[in-house]
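Consider today's protein:

***
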Amino acid sequence: MSILTQDQTKRITDRVLSLSKADECIVNIEGARIGNIRFARNAVSTAGLADDTRLTVQVAFGKRQGTATINEFDDKSLEKAVRRAEDLARLAPENPEFMPAIAKTGYKSSETYVKRTAEIDPEFRAQAAAYAMEACRKKGLVSAGFFTDRETFETVANSNGVFGHQVATSLDFTCTVRTEDGRGSGWVKRSARDVARFDPREAADVAIEKALRSVDAKALEPGRYTVVMEPSATSDLLTFMIGGFNARMADEGRSFLSKKGGQNRLGDKLFDQQVNIWSDPWDKDVPVLPWDNDMLPRERTHLVKDGRINALNYSQYWAKQKGQRAIGSAGNIIMAGTDKSTAELIANTKKGVLVTRTWYIRMVDPQSVLVTGLTRDGTFYIENGKVKHPIKNFRFNESPVSMLNNIEEIGKPLVIGGDEANYSMLIPSMKIRDFNFTSLSDAV
């Protein structure tokens, strides 16, 4: 019973709400059917299908809250969960930042569900893996990868009359290809809600081509270089910056958007004029649920406009403290791009470095969003508009804030991520000047 219909969940939530004796009650039901296949050394290692459905009930007596979770839906189990949550609430201390359940509101549905993705079967998964494995065998290469597809639903309801139900689909595919001697490595990641937008052959061919071209990497002196970063590499770094758009963090001095005296940098120009970043639950490429984890309705929100900080995210509590309006937190991040391919960005580069992937990234300084990490799985030297030869990987110390202020060109966006129905990114490739490589890495 992993995927329930709206009628089914409405009956369950109505029953839970009727059982509660608390001042308020919030109900969340989630379910998922997740298929997967994993392969390594050109052979399938695991494959399976996982089903899960769970209900969470949260109640409050005044400012005292309690929560209980179950995966059984008969009347006896539902009542047991409600009583458990109420018992915990009576024992809990008062929450000084308690905010009441949101008032009745409507949700504008987003197109998160595609039937053909929900119909992915074991044969499709096997074929997706088979192409990579067979192509690598023929070329004397070694493949490893993971394909996963999801069909999910989420229902939210509360004692104020709020109700929302939505289903979603998504898929993710990653593949690493290495030469048998371990001297060359390539990698690719593809994500989509619609399986029609996923081509396993195209994906595997990208990883294969990078593995073959990355053999015999030469050492390049560390330093500041112009880099062409593919979308996967860029998105990993931007993720560290996006959390800083939290208004409370900024006001309390815990963000790169903080100012002295408890102020924030809303309205300040921090990035290149080309930088535009927004969230939109109804975007056709990366749609997400129209509510956030607090059941607040999401809106299209322009975080950065022409390089200027245009909006911050206010929780219900912080919005009340600051006299602002709370809206649902972003479920996706979209950055404006162009029609230029990564190849075109390379063609316009006299000297630089092409970065396929960044990994093992760690925060160094939250105030400037300085992070450190490594390149891997295909790093190449660019000269006179062409990829000249592979180079050894680097460790870098860089801030995505500085990156977005050093943009020379922006390429075509690519869908990255796709965690159920609540997180996706649409991020372009970028050509960035003065990227700081601090040392060499022997890993491929």
About this structure: The mean pLDDT is 96. The chain is about 25% helix and 40% strand.
